[in-house]
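User: Can you predict the 3D structure of IS3 family transposase? Sequence below.
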Amino acid sequence: MGHACGRHRVARLMREAGLRVRSHKRWRLVSSSRHALPIAPNHLDRQFASDRANRHWVSDMTYVRTAQGWLYLAVVLDLYSRAVVGWAMHHRMQQALVHAALEMAVARRQPKEEVLLHSDRGSQYCAYDYQALLRRHRIVPSHSRPGNCWDNAAMESFFRSLKAERVYLTRYTSYQEAKADLFDYIRFYNHRRRHSTLGYLSPMEFERRYASSNS
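Assistant: Sure. Here are the predicted C-alpha cells for IS3 family transposase:
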C-alpha cells in the first residue's frame, strides 16, 4: 500500500542518497518551417507500417546537451523494421548534417526501388540542394503538416527512447563522449532493443527472420 510521505522529506532522502529526478529539458528549436522553400504533400499520412524494407523512411533532427555545447543528431529510420539506417552528428546545426545522414542510409541500404522519405518541413529538409539529393537517389519527399509532430510519430518515438534510456541519464563532458554514447545506443537499439510492434524482436532480428522466411 505504500507510506504517506511529504515532498520535503522525499527531497531530503533523495539528496542524502545522491538521487536526482529525471526531468525533460526545455524544448529547443532545431529547424524552422518559416521559409519560402517548396513543401511536399504529406504522402505518408501517418501510415507508419511498411510491408518491406527500404520502402518508407522517416527522418528528423534532435540535440543533446554537453559541457562543450549542443550536439546535433540527424537520423534516418526505416519504418519496416524501425532500424536506424543513417545518422550524422555535429556541434553545428548545418545543412550538411541531414545530407550525411541520408547518404549513409543510401550507402548502407542500397535501395533498389523508389523510397518515400518523410520529415518535417524544416528548412534543412526543404532546401533545394537537399531536394536535388533526394532526386538523385530516386527518393520521394513527404512533409508533415505545420507544427504537427504526430505526422512523424515514429521518428519522435525513437528520440523519446534515446533520451529517456540514455541521454537524460548521462552528463556528457565533451562532444566526443556524447558522440560515442549516441553511437553505442544506436547499435544497441538496432541489434538488441526489442519492440512490441515487431513481435518483441530487435530491428535487425526482425529483418533477418523475415528475410530468411521470404527467401
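The helical segments are 7-17, 95-109, 123-126, 128-136, 153-165, 175-191, 203-213. Residues 23-29 have pLDDT under 50 and may be disordered.
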